[in-house]
Design goal:
By secondary structure, this protein is an alpha/beta fold. It has one domain: Rossmann fold, CATH 3.40.50. It is built from 5 helices and 5 strands, in the order H-E-H-E-H-E-H-H-E-E. Strands 2-1-3-4-5 form a 5-stranded mixed β-sheet. The radius of gyration is 13 Å and the shape is globular. 21% of the residues are buried.
Length: 109
């Protein structure tokens, strides 16, 4: 866990899921079961927009972890490549969800 998270007491989660029902249910579960701050978006493209300030390397990432459904789209690849190119974003763990709904690492440094 990052020092800033422990200091604030809240884990900042970016949830990426194209299915509205799944996205809403997962966000609610995370908020109800823990002291997580959850921002949910539909696409990797939307996530890239939220991560853009940190991609410049001058602003700390707004999220401590990214949870995303598995998708083989070009925008998902762009998300991971952009994060890998930026020192601050490369430190943010990304956990991907496969169709069988088990969570597996999608990106590791």
């Amino acid at each position: 866990m990052h020092e800033r998270t422990e200091h604030l007491g809240t884990l900042r989660v970016l949830l990426i899921d194209s299915d509205a029902n799944s996205r809403q249910a997962t966000a609610k579960l995370l908020r109800d079961c823990s002291n997580y701050s959850v921002h949910a978006v539909k696409t990797s493209k939307e996530a890239l927009t939220l991560l853009a300030p940190a991609a410049s390397g001058s602003v700390e990432p707004a999220f401590d972890i990214i949870l995303k459904e598995h998708e083989g789209s070009a925008s998902a690849c762009r998300l991971l490549k952009q994060m890998a190119r930026t020192e601050l974003l490369a430190k943010v763990p990304v956990v991907g969800e496969r169709e069988e709904r088990s969570l597996r690492p999608a990106f590791a440094r």
